[in-house]
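Reader question, answered in our methods column.
A reader sent in the components of a multi-part assembly and asked whether the whole thing could be modeled at once rather than chain by chain. We filled in our standard form and ran it. Here is what they sent:
COMPLEX SIZE: three components
ENTRIES:
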Amino acid sequence: MKVRDVENGYLIRLEKGEPVMRTLTTYCEKNSVMTAVFHAMGAVENSEIGYYDLAKKQYFFRTIPETREVASMHGNVAMIDGNPIVHAHVVLSASDESLACIGGHVKEVTVAVTLEIFLRPLPAAVSRLMDESIGLKLLDL
Amino acid sequence: MKVRDVENGYLIRLEKGEPVMRTLTTYCEKNSVMTAVFHAMGAVENSEIGYYDLAKKQYFFRTIPETREVASMHGNVAMIDGNPIVHAHVVLSASDESLACIGGHVKEVTVAVTLEIFLRPLPAAVSRLMDESIGLKLLDL
Amino acid sequence: MKVRDVENGYLIRLEKGEPVMRTLTTYCEKNSVMTAVFHAMGAVENSEIGYYDLAKKQYFFRTIPETREVASMHGNVAMIDGNPIVHAHVVLSASDESLACIGGHVKEVTVAVTLEIFLRPLPAAVSRLMDESIGLKLLDL
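And here is the structure of the entire assembly that came back:
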């Protein structure tokens, strides 16, 4: 992981093999980034992504072992019990002639080539609180 | 709708059942947000999205009733006749094993679970003006 | 190409026929934008997009002649040999009933209707340097 402070934000490069969600979370913990937004692009592998099934109140995840381009990745950082939690959604395009896209909520993705992130801390302390009717910890605004 | 002013922007949470385009437009009207950019993620249903057919000079829209993850949603706000107009494009991933993505121009989408938005007002007053050769109101820059 | 300086960034409208990567690169060269991030939406044609094949250390590109909506486009600007280089990933949705998305790394796309860009220069001077093990010029942070 390489980071450049660019005033009002950080340019970050994650390296092959780094788990994106875990690495970003640890970075935010160590640097007290408690509320932020970010986007990223690059290529990942061993992706676990999925969707939230509101009727069952649980996520469905699928694992995609092969390398895919990160056509789009967006997320935010907010606190649960005072610790920064990263929430991200992604669009992954196939590394074959189809270039077909799949996407959804990110459990984890691992950098396959490189990942370029722009992380923008926000001057606020936003938490997530459980909403029992939804079954998720929603932004407490 | 919940909003937190985070300096240089607003973190917004829309709630289940809220129409995204209408709710954002009303918010911008009431708060005099005339020019802005935003992105959003979450899950929506009853989506009306489509594409612009330049030959026919009209949009084609398709309705997708079922819940889909908002893998990516981007937009901007600019004025038509002095009122804020929201323009957005979206990528929706299927809430099934395929996780397949569809996307395009947004007519309306309704929050199915939650929607997390970062709206960034810009210190400018940008309008849209009709371009007869294109058939759309383009940014007047 | 039309540009409005909106403080901390530029709203840009590219016009039908303009090559996006080339036009943005030239703009950055002329205006000394050496490090930046951006996103864009609109519709393009004659798209050359693809993916990086790490085993072969080369990009595979596919040409898509027909018009597609830019459901999402993200990128950054950094320097190679002191000149600004634009790096972008895109999600393109089909201009037909399927609205199906393809995506990946952008070689070039040409504006088919309009393209609305928000470009945000960063107060930094970031270069790209060749990483021989990856075969690409990565952000030097």
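What stands out: The two ends of chain A are 31 Å apart (CA to CA). The CA atoms of residues 74 and 92 of chain A lie 12 Å apart.
Send us your own complexes using the same form.
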